[in-house]
Amino acid sequence: MDTFYDRLINRAATIDELLSDDFEAIPGEKDRAAFGQRRLAAWCQSAASGDWSLFGRRIERDGLDSASVLARLTAVRRKPAGPIPLWAADATWILPALEATASKSAAELIGSKAEPVAFEHLLVGVVERAEALLQSATDGKTAANLTAPAYDCLRRALLTELSELAAPAFYERFIAIRNAAETAAPRQDAPTSLYEKFVAEMKVGGFRQLFEEKPVLLRLISTIVRQWVETSREFIQRLDADLPSIRSVVQAGGQGGVVQIEGGFSDPHNGGRSVKIVIFADGSKVVYKPKDLRVDVAWQELVGRLNRAAPPVELRTARALARDGYGWTACIEHAGCVAPDEFKTFFKRVGAWLALFHCFAANDMHQENIVADGSHPIPIDLETILQSSSSEQKASTLEDAAFDAATEKLANSVMATGLLPAYGRGPDGKVFAMGGVTADWNTKIRIKWENINSDDMRPTRWKNVATNNPNLPHVNGRYAKFSDHIEELIAGFDAYARFILEKGKSAALFDGFSGLTVRKVVRATRFYAMLLQRLKNHKTMDDGVAWSAQAD
Description:
The chain is an alpha+beta fold. Helices cover about 50% and strands about 10% of the residues.
């Protein structure tokens, strides 16, 4: 392997790799002792908040000691006989693809109507090569379910992810060229002359210089590309295998194939896998979720049984199809109500869901996991039901005991579901509102490029303020306010809690949730009487974002 890649393997290695048998310390590198000390101190700070005694016990658990760890963090190299990391093997074709001139433009790869991507001219070659690998990994029959625009969506997702990762590093080098040019003389060339010069210089040595300075960047680019190829192949093959069942169970996927694939609805997990919305030629949609959906199917069956048992209000779930480690669900669209009177029914159903979620020890039912489909609030993510209780705390002081008692009360109350409005605090210290029936939650700060891919391009912070609140019902653009319907929520909670308490005597009703006994149902609803009174005593702000409750 080229010594260039060997250097990057050593410098971009993770702690686990550096401490493994595939690497060895280099003796006699005393001039790098301070560097090793800084790395060790950073690890101690991250793993043990700077507590060296605690950190010592941490590494001792793995059979290590500070001296040997320090030696590996100071100067190390991969053993000649050690395996080449997968990312480095991919880098040997990714770097040439970055440096080469692509045969297709970005518009040809992601669609002519798509918005331009920052520094797309530096990344399009990698996307083109990655697609060739994907095509070779899927046969013609499987790929036939995706139309050309659907493939545009897949390629656009990769190009966008690579841009978001690498654009800051590219821009850092670009502005150095721009500043030098502006200092030398006023610019009189075409508005993209400096940008084009930068792209050309990156392809004839600039990329290698950049990765020498930032070796982890090449590792991350290689990882993202590999994950895209693998997860896209997996998605295409799963769609082909499951399409008949999707049509019968989820009732989506008519004739004509897939015309659009939307992503960005979840953080990537488990090797870059994430949620996708698949749109077919007939307009029907299905949600692809790369996680176990057996609980969603069991939940759907449970709610169906409850609906057949004469409940106070009927609830709706998203149709789900579970497969081994992944599944498909119906795409719940945010739809308005016919008349404002339906707002009352909506919040009664919110109260019913609150009672049911409380029984099932659910949490994280915040605004992004509830969609208002007319008068029905529909949960779209059920991975946080049946949460275990926190381990018993042994308080050392009276203050700690008081804190633990308060935490336990909240954890055992309906506030733990996340459905009711509450306050949170972000890493920057700013207070924000959250909750399944919270308004004005979807304001996000994003990076937007002005004068993109030109000499004057600059990143700006852009506040994306949407007027759509998909977790709340509306009529003709007027959204319901939670503060106007507290009594309806209380009434819905009261009625459904009594219903569950009565129906909980029938163990068969809760088939599919073997851990849920009648006793647990009864115990889970023991708070409702006092809770109702407390709910009536609390008020909210007009916009419905403030809420506090203390349920014993």
